[in-house]
Amino acid sequence: MKQFFTLFLCVFLLQVQQVLGQCSGSITLATQADVDAFDCVDFSGSITVQGNDITNLDSLSELETLTESLKINGTGNLGVISFPNLKDVGDRLDIRGNAALTGLSFPVLGKVGSGGFASGPSLSLRIQNNASLEAIPGFDSLRTVGNFLSVANNAALREIS
Description:
This protein is of the alpha/beta class.
């Protein structure tokens, strides 16, 4: 019985470690399958989304806080970036080089970046080189951008509200 309990405890602790490990670190979601497997509300670390077969970020919609960076770069088929529950990005939000991107929505995002210069100034919020992006209406709650904001080289951009 004691051996069974010890085995059960070890398996349980390994499962807890796996679950906690999924929501921390520095991860790259390079395929739609990687994106679909994401299941975190709070993430301690950085997330990079980058890959031509990525068409939606639906499984990231429950994400509320991110302690470091969110980078969505070089997705060829992603039409809309929507994070309906994301409230806080600790370091940087970087949206660059997404050829098919037409819309953004971050309705409850209140803060991006801490404003610290520990490793030198960096862009806290960057939206650049998204050729099809026509409007940026979805940052209604944004009140704080840590260091710098850059919106540039978005050829189709007509409106920021």
